[in-house]
């Protein structure tokens, strides 16, 4: 029996497509019908979204069936399969540092078996050069003395929190750190006896969200324009100060942080801060 060559090529192409599609669907068993998680987050005031960690898909097959990202919802553990998406939209994220991010957003199905994560908020790990303890930890958003556990609907009353960043990062802006912890970060840690023990902090981006523009102070000879950094890291003018004698020592920052300074009152001397380097604050 004679079989035309074009028919054989068609069958081979169909087999390859079926294998690729099967490889994709094996790790893509989740569909965007799980609204319980989104409803739990919405009731907690966290938005009708889910919170994910992402890894790059390194499989070698044709895009969009391969080459996208695998998502896992935080705090769910072994109860879930990887969720494959062909793209992530709404924020610029470096594929090389995906493990430093928590992403909140919603999934949307597209044509040709594609799916996209549309990001609502992006959170990046604040560097801390110390080992994590072996205790079981969860991901929270903390605000108004309540720790809201992400993706589960559970929440815990908190009397106070403890963290190691202010002790281990010299010259970190502690007012800014407190502001970020209270509702502007994802917190990794645990809650026991009303105490939120913070192991790591993923700060919300961009940071700062917005800073107003101010005219540069016009100072008399012998005086210097001065500034202060507020709890959102905006640099605000405070007028002029007579330039005095300043210490010559300049502090250093640990890995992952960059030294910045502003001339401050009363003598116009530099006030130094160690800011996360990924925020690209240079002076």
Automatic annotation (TrEMBL):
Keywords of the record: Signal
Signal as UniProt keyword: yes
Keyword Signal: yes
Signal peptide limits: 1-22
Annotated ranges, domain DUF6748: 51-76
InterPro entries xref list: DDB_G0275255-like (IPR040405), DUF6748 (IPR046636)
Annotated protein name in UniProt: DUF6748 domain-containing protein
Taxonomic placement: Eukaryota, Amoebozoa, Evosea, Eumycetozoa, Dictyostelia
């Amino acid at each position: 029996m004679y079989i035309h060559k074009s028919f054989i090529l068609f069958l081979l192409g169909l087999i390859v497509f079926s294998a690729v599609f099967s490889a994709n669907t094996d790790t893509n068993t989740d569909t965007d019908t799980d609204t319980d998680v989104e409803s739990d987050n919405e009731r907690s005031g966290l938005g009708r979204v889910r919170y994910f960690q992402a890894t790059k898909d390194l499989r070698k097959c044709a895009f969009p069936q391969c080459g996208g990202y695998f998502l896992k919802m935080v705090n769910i553990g072994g109860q879930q399969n990887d969720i494959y998406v062909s793209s992530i939209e709404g924020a610029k994220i470096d594929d090389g540092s995906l493990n430093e991010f928590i992403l909140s957003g919603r999934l949307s199905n597209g044509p040709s078996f594609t799916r996209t994560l549309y990001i609502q908020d992006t959170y990046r790990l604040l560097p801390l050069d110390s080992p994590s303890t072996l205790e079981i930890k969860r991901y929270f958003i903390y605000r108004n003395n309540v720790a809201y556990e992400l993706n589960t609907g559970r929440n815990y009353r908190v009397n106070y929190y403890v963290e190691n960043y202010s002790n281990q990062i010299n010259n970190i802006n502690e007012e800014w750190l407190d502001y970020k912890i209270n509702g502007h970060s994802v917190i990794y840690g645990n809650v026991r006896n009303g105490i939120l023990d913070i192991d790591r902090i993923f700060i919300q981006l961009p940071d700062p969200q917005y800073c107003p523009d101010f005219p540069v102070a016009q100072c008399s000879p012998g005086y210097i324009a001065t500034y202060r950094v507020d709890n959102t890291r905006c640099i605000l003018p405070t007028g002029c100060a007579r330039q005095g004698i300043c210490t010559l020592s300049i502090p250093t920052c640990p890995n992952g942080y960059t030294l910045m300074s502003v001339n401050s009152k009363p003598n116009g001397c530099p006030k130094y801060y160690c800011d996360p380097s990924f925020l690209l604050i240079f002076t």
